Each structure stands twice: as C-alpha cells, then as structure tokens.
C-alpha cells in the first residue's frame, strides 16, 4: 500500500470519526509537537507497516506473516469487535485504542508500545480505526451480496461508522471501601455473575470457550496477573458493564452498590504488583568496562554488572512458558559478555522424549535506532541472532549411541575394515552437559530465517543450570567479523532483544517467548 493510498484511508477514517470526542490519554510529553492531519495520517500508516503488519496484516485482517505462529491469534480489525472498550455500546473510543497500544495485551503476543511518544500512539490508533472501518464496511457489503441484496458503498461506510462510534462513556460508580461487609457483598455478586468462568478463587476456568470468530479463549486467571486491561476501578467498571466484545464475556447490568462491591472483591483476588508483571517495559542496559570480560556465569564479576529485568511473551501461549529473564552486560577492550538468566525447573534433561524440543535461548541485535518491534530485520536493515541450544542433534546422536551401540553396528567384517554403509559414531559425543556452541545468524526478514547461514565459533556460550535456573554467558569480539554483523562501539547504542525456548513445554522453532527491544550501551 503506497503512501497516497494510506493517506486516503486515513482521511476517510477521519471523516467517519470526526464526531467522536477523544478522551484524555495522559499528559503529553514535552517533545511532542502539533502535527498536521496529513502528516499524522502518513505517520500512523508507516508505524503500522513497521510494527503491526507482521501480525495483523496490511489491511488488519489478522493474516500477517507471523499470524500462523500466534495463539491467541492476532486480532482482525475488520470484525469491528475490540475487547477493551469504555462506552455503553461497546465501540472503542480513541482513548481505548491508545491505552491498548500503550499497555499491550498481557497473556498474548501483543506487547506494549509505551516507549512511543503520545503523538505516535494517537496516529497509530487512528490508522487502526481506519482499517477497522474500511474492513467492516467491505464485510457488510459482501454479506449483503451473499444474501442477494445490494448495499451501496456509502451505506456500508455509514453502518460501519455507526457501529464503531462510541456513545456515552462508562462512568464508574464511586469507589467503595474495602471493608469486610463490602468484600462479602462483592463475593456474593462474584459467585453469581463471574465464578462460573473465572472460578471461585479467581484462577480461571480450565475448559476453553469460543469467541465469536470460532477461536478458543480461556477465562483469565486474576491471581496470576493475566489481565488484558488494567485493574483500576475505571477499567474494571468498563469490563463489567461493556463486557469483552467478541468473547464469551457479556455485558453485566447490576445495581451500583453491587458493582462497586464486585470491583473491590475482584481487586482483592489480584495480588499486589502482579497486574503489571507481564507488561513490557523498554529499559537501557549499560555494559560497564572491566579488565577481562567474564566467561563463567558464576564469575564474581557479575555481582557488579548492571542488569535489567526483561518481560517475555510466548508467541503460542502455554502455562509453562518463560515469562521473565534477567540480562546483564560487561565488556573489556576486546569482548562483550552478556549473561541471560531465567527460571526453569527441568533443566537440560530432554534427550529421550517424543520431541526434539530442548531448552534454548537467543539474543537479537540491531544497529538501527528504532527497529521493527517484531521484525527480524529487513534487506536494508539486517539483524543479528546469537542462537544457543542446550542439546543439539549431534549431541543426541552420540548419547543414543552410548545407550545402544548394537543398533548402529553392521554385520561383522574383516578386522579394521571401514564400511561405507554403516554410520560411524564417537562415544565421546554423548554429552549430557549444556552445549558450548552458539550460532551467529544474519537475518533480513522473517522469510530469511530458515535459509540464513549459521556461523559457529564466532559467538561463544557458557551455560549452567542449577537450582532451577539457567545462566548463559554469550561472548563475542566487539568488532564485526563479516558483512551485516553488528559492531559494538563504546558510547554507541545498540538494540538487543531476547528469546527463550522451554523444551519441557515443547517449545521449538517459532514457539518461544520473546521480548521487545532494549537499549544496550557500552561504557567508554
């Protein structure tokens, strides 16, 4: 879609939504400046193409390149059903779209864009609305044709605009004090209205239900912080009164006193701090300079290293997915060392199962100032991957040979004879320790990953699993060793992101947990 077409779509969407009064989206930053509507339209379209198309598709139909690897699936905007809304009729206000972009959708692969300026968030939300109105209008016209009727384009656009125009905003009732009587009242309302899906203790029903589009969905576990939206009184009032459009959660109309008590009880089910534990945060990691970059994950030098906590989102949701990691950095005149740690209860023992899955980790680097959020590089903007696996196929083959060498033996031959039709195995390959090999891969887009060259030995990995936690040190020379390889220059920021595979959960290939970009700066 060229820029002129994107501008036309935006102007049509502006006409559709001009009668919607946007709600406040938070204080503007000092760096934000007024932007002309045309520039904002192009900016929103460009941001969408850069960060969102890979999952949601160019027209917002949930058919991007990464869509087959996502569960829950990428939302289809053309259905006109947005989950997080604050209007009585269930249509999203501009502020709802901005809030979703800023926070993301915890419990899915959708990260937050809180690192974008407010003006960019507003422009991106406006483009999402354009795609929703355009797609919904096309769908209404197509449905009419399938029923033997004709719907003029102008009428289809009018109906789409009407459905996506919010009416009265939901105003929450006054907050109730969290006393014993209020909690008991809220518990009774919860048992009547909510417990059937979310369970009496708020842990969520294990059996899935179906959304309107036929996809599976589960009632959220409040106690684990898997909340699509915030846990504020205003946000919970909107969830109660508007429901979650497109899902099995219907709107609930209850007495104001019951609603206030229900909100207090639901908030009591959410442990302090867990509501935001899955919300992605972009941080800056400073790599201090030391005499010698440490190799051992347990080296005392790491106690003085700067570290950041990194949130991870599983592309394919499962309860055993890795949701958090810690990244630390140190460097000397020659090498950069990065230590990645995360909790894992099973460790490396994944040899003799019905899957090839094994624990693994990767770091991705980009020299661009603001690379595409989920992209894996582009022809003009490659990224580098450092990929480590706890056990590799060559290790597995050697270990299997140790267990049963007879299975690989051929018929008896002459002493010292080498047979070309019988594979040779070295029993020394049967290692049960973590691999020390990490491949360096230059990636120029999602489609290039499978065919990309894997360069061993350039990146070194030293891994250790103990007491339910992996610790891996990746090391590489500061200066690049090939075309497209990111250089680490003290004082020059580099973007870094993380990925972790939990072999015990069956993670392999595209099934993994990933972070958003973090900024890495080497101390001079």
Key attributes of the depicted protein:
single chain; alpha+beta; Cytochrome Bc1 Complex, Chain D, domain 2; Immunoglobulin-like; 10-stranded mixed β-barrel; two-stranded antiparallel ribbon; 11 helices; disordered N terminus
Report on the architecture of this protein.
By secondary structure, the chain is an alpha+beta fold. 26% of the residues lie in helices and 18% in strands. The chain folds into three domains: 3-25 and 35-163, Cytochrome Bc1 Complex, Chain D, domain 2; 180-276, Cytochrome c-like domain (Cytochrome Bc1 Complex, Chain D, domain 2, Orthogonal Bundle), CATH 1.10.760.10; 284-408 and 423-522, Immunoglobulin-like (Sandwich), CATH 2.60.40. It is globular and about 65 Å long.
What is the element layout, followed by pairings?
Layout: H1 3-17, H2 37-51, H3 53-56, H4 94-103, H5 118-146, H6 153-163, H7 180-193, H8 195-198, E1 209-210, E2 216-217, H9 233-242, H10 256-269, E3 284-289, E4 306-311, E5 313-314, E6 324-331, E7 335-343, E8 360-366, E9 383-389, H11 393-403, E10 437-443, E11 454-466, E12 469-477, E13 494-501, E14 513-514, E15 518-522
